[in-house]
Design brief:
The protein is an alpha+beta fold. The chain has helices at about 30, 35-45; strands at about 5-10, 15-20, 50-55, 60-65. The chain has a four-stranded antiparallel β-sheet, with helices on one face. The protein is flat, with a radius of gyration of 13 Å.
């Protein structure tokens, strides 16, 4: 049994989305070119003009940041 944690927050200039699990993680060398990660990276950069950072040292954590230009 694993857990998934999702957090969405914002300040006056940016949105922040964090998705984290407490699983075993993955090997960044073999997974960095997966179709799923390539699609997510492409969508974040082209549609949201945002950034994405991944960490797989203790489970997997993905942090996405984009500008708050929709208000």
């Amino acid at each position: 049994n694993g857990n998934i944690y999702i957090k969405l927050s914002k300040n006056t200039t940016h949105y922040f989305l964090s998705v984290k699990d407490d699983g075993v993680g993955y090997d960044k060398d073999t997974s960095s070119n997966s179709l799923g990660l390539l699609l997510v990276n492409s969508l974040i950069q082209s549609k949201l003009k945002g950034t994405i950072h991944t960490n797989s040292s203790n489970g997997v954590e993905i942090k996405i940041t984009w500008e708050n230009t929709y208000e």
